[in-house]
Design goal:
Shape: globular
Mean pLDDT: 96
Low-confidence stretches: none
CATH superfamily: Glycoside hydrolase/deacetylase
Helix content: 25-40%
Strand order of the largest sheet: 1-2-3-4-5-6-9
Oligomer: single chain
Distance between the termini: 12 Å
Strand content: 15-25%
CATH class: Alpha Beta
CATH topology: TIM Barrel
Largest sheet: 7 strands, parallel, barrel
Radius of gyration: 17 Å
Number of strands: 9
Structural class: alpha/beta
């Protein structure tokens, strides 16, 4: 199983999280990040054998990329591609390669349901490298379009977020959007992996596929959560897919 986290966002806990991650998504200038933070995060990922991904966003540092924006499709493709290429250039200088792309925040959420936004993201991925992996939610418009273009998709599930009945995430504007209890998260993760189900906030069980699990770095309990999952998942015969792991 892959465990990923969004890093290089200025939260300040990247060095504590990285040892427990098998992949990371590095902010590349849209909502957060600059050349220095990208380089530092890449170096940290290499040190811990953690796969590196680009985490492009709407160009909206003021709102941390969490506000929906309406941008013409060609312009959006160019914005996303520029961010991926910026991170890739720094990665090459550091002797690293990009493993995947995962959109951030409002861009990710819109690409999940909005065909126009999803097409712009998928086009950017294809223009960059048709062989790179895209992290996308199971059943999403983005995943469907990517698969139709023969892009390799890893279905992403959110370990520390509550779901609505339609598999969208509960809005961060609501109190119960984020889960912070490691034991509760483990129970949810085991249900996702072993039974391919997720329990929504209403109690409904829905089918889901999880190839990679996301824990949010800005969750105040993020380090405790990833540490606990690393400790507990092997007990349940689930290994964490670090680079070079057998």
């Amino acid at each position: 199983m892959d465990i990923n986290c969004d890093l290089g966002e200025g939260v300040g806990n990247d060095h504590l999280l990285m040892p427990f991650l098998s992949s990371c998504n590095i902010a590349c200038g849209g909502h957060a990040g600059d050349e220095d933070t990208m380089r530092q995060t890449i170096q940290l990922a290499k040190q811990h054998r953690t796969k590196i991904g680009a985490h492009p966003s709407f160009p909206d540092k003021e709102n941390f990329g969490r506000t929906e924006m309406r941008i013409p499709s060609e312009q959006l493709t160019s914005l996303v591609l520029d961010q991926i290429e910026t991170l890739d250039a720094i990665a090459k200088e550091e002797g690293a390669v990009l493993n995947h792309v995962k959109p951030h925040g409002a861009l990710y959420n819109m690409a999940t349901v909005d065909k126009g936004v999803a097409e712009a993201v998928v086009k950017a991925v294809l223009l960059f490298d048709e062989k790179i992996i895209l992290y996308a939610p199971y059943g999403s418009v983005m995943a469907k379009l990517a698969l139709e273009q023969s892009i390799r998709v890893m279905f992403e599930a959110f370990a520390d977020r509550n779901y609505n009945d339609d598999l969208t995430l509960v809005s961060r504007k609501l109190e119960n959007a984020v889960i912070q209890n490691p034991e509760e998260i483990l129970t949810r993760v085991l249900l996702m992996i072993k039974e391919k189900k997720v329990k929504s906030l209403s109690g409904q069980l829905s089918h889901i596929q999880a190839d990679t699990l996301c824990i949010h770095g800005d969750n105040s309990h993020a380090v405790d959560i990833v540490s606990y999952l690393n400790q507990q998942l092997p007990i349940h015969h689930i290994s964490i897919a670090k680079i070079g792991a057998v």
